[in-house]
Amino acid sequence: SLSQPEREGMFHRGPGPNLTSGQYTAPIAGYYAFSTTLHIVRREPRRKGQGCRGSRLRVLICVQSRCQHNSNLETVSQLESSGGLFTISVTGTLYLQAGQYASVFVDNTAGSPLTVQSGSDFSAVLLGV
C-alpha cells in the first residue's frame, strides 16, 4: 500500500518507515540498501585558540542503535576551520532480521553546534531475502 507523502518530493511504501522516530523497521528479514544524505550547517565558527585537530563528523546508519558493533555503515568527514553548510552521505547494505530497525546517528566531535537542514534524506530498499 502506498502512503500519502507528507511533503513534496517524499514518498514511502510499505510499513517500514516511522517518520516520527526516524527509524526504518524491517518488515521481513533480508538485505536492505540504506542511504542518507545530510545537509548540515555549523552555526558558529570555531573560536580562536581551539585547534582543528579532532574536528570531524561521523555519520552512521546503525541497526538497533548499536553503533559500536559491526552492524553499521559509517562515513567520517574532516571539517574545515570555518563554519558553513556542507553535505555528508552514507550508502551501503545491511542485513536486518524482521522487526529490527535502522536509524541515522551523527557523532559531532567538532565542538560547535550543528543543524541538519531540510532536504536531508534517509531511505531503505529491500534487495532480497
TrEMBL record:
Compartment(s) of residence: Secreted
Keyword annotations: Disulfide bond, Glycoprotein, Hormone, Hydroxylation, Secreted, Signal
Keyword Secreted in record: yes
Superkingdom field: Eukaryota
Name listed for the protein in its UniProt record: Erythroferrone
A GO CC annotation given for this chain: extracellular space
UniProt similarity note: Belongs to the adipolin/erythroferrone family.
GO biological process, one term: positive regulation of insulin receptor signaling pathway
Molecular function as annotated in GO: hormone activity
